[in-house]
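Hi X.,

You mentioned you wanted examples for the new student's onboarding notes, showing what a folding record looks like when two proteins sit in one file. Here is a clean example. The first protein comes first, with its sequence line followed by its structure tokens.
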Amino acid sequence: MPSSFNVESADGYERLMGRWSKRLAPLLIDFAGLADGDRVLDVGCGTGSLTFALAGRPGLKEIAAIDYSPVFVEAATRRNTDPRIAIRQADACALPFEDNRFDRAISLLVLHFVPEAGKAVSEMARVVRPGGVVAAAVWDHYGGMPIMRMMWDTAVMLDEDALPLRRKYCFQPMMRPGEMKQSFVSQGLVDVEETSLLIRMEYGSFEDYWGPIGAGEGPLGTYVAGLDPAKRKAVDAAVRAAYEAGEPDGPRSFASVAWACRGRVV
């Protein structure tokens, strides 16, 4: 299962998204629910935002985490000091665990990068015991991520080649209202509920925002890295102007919304 998310470095990902997924992780955990003694699987752990948030719950018996990227697996493993946590490289669409292994399987900001997202939901349900919970969250790129829409909406005014990329970014798997819920139901989960989770992304400066994108991290970074020098200069300047919005460079705060869904295994 190739992921559509490119990883240049673990540190770059932390600047791009890891610092914000740390804020989102507790909200998803609360939505998923936990009980003392639970065995929990983190599907697509990245650098460990959800994994280590789970580790802050002392009542959990076991925390397993997988990711497709060896860069992420190495970074998360290096950080880990909790004996309850086991991290390994694996495919979300072919989880290396037996049926009914866990009480909960949770996925944070991953399913929209899985080409066969429904298969990943099916695998999460397979490894959770009857009565257990599957939960996931993905960003609402179209309506809930103004900081990223700002970049794409600016880019398409300068580069018509960005038009199909913007559409792909805005409508990745699981991002339309009700889409995750429909997928959960189609995979046999019951008591399915979809909601939205809100955090704020706060940047100290334009460079704080643009640095990891300019370095090639993530889908936006891949696009920027492929521009010719003249177009790259124009996009850089236009996005900076959008970020500053006529005021001096400095701190900015943006609301950011994720879709979240949970369901029970029967």
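Then the second protein repeats the pattern, sequence line and then tokens:
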Amino acid sequence: MPRSIHGGRHELGQNFLTHRPTLARITDLVGRTSGSILELGCGDGALTRSLARLERPLAAIDVDEHRVHRLRKALPGVRIEIADATRHPLDAEVIVGNIPFHVTTPILRRLLSSGRWSQAVLLTQWEVARKRAGVGGGTMMTAQSAPWFEFSLEGRVPAWGFSPQPSVDGGVLAITRRGSPLVPASDRREYEAFVRSMFTGRGSNLAAVLATAARIPMSRARRCVAAAGADDRRLPRDLRPEHWAALWRHVSRG
């Protein structure tokens, strides 16, 4: 395979998925959805071929022009384009892909700020998938998005299931846009700032962190925590989406 103008596999962050159970798992998850599909980073097309069997509108993109040209010949019924996943419009109902590990965060940020798609199935580093799904504690990015999206961890992929083999395992992360958001879209910017303040605030318990982050008296912070149904002994990483939404409601009303 000729070298892409963007570099070789290392520069492009390409770790091609060869693990057949994961290919089947991702295809099954996408098969439970409906509507058009956009695959990010199609590479040599192992997942593209599997998705094509769903017989739904399918587009695939990759930055490697040589692989795109070859895959177009193999799959003439699929729209395959040379494009960068960090800039290409996310213009499908379902987004799916084996995300290059070095651009996982920017792609996730784009995805969670884009307004059209309804469901996504992504293969990322194991730690990213685990943290985004809230396993072992949530992250700031997940908490900032939780009122509008649901995250679930759908499987672990051994490092040997990729070629070339990366140094870490992969994880399958499913994201679903909520039909009924827990926080109004008009509050999103202020809510995200609130979550950032909570994760960067200090305090030995939840009420103390809230009092500092929201700049409210400790007595009111305790009332907000109790009204939200949250355990004051917890910290921001332990909160569920419902707790975040309730805390925001009580704080913002004040």
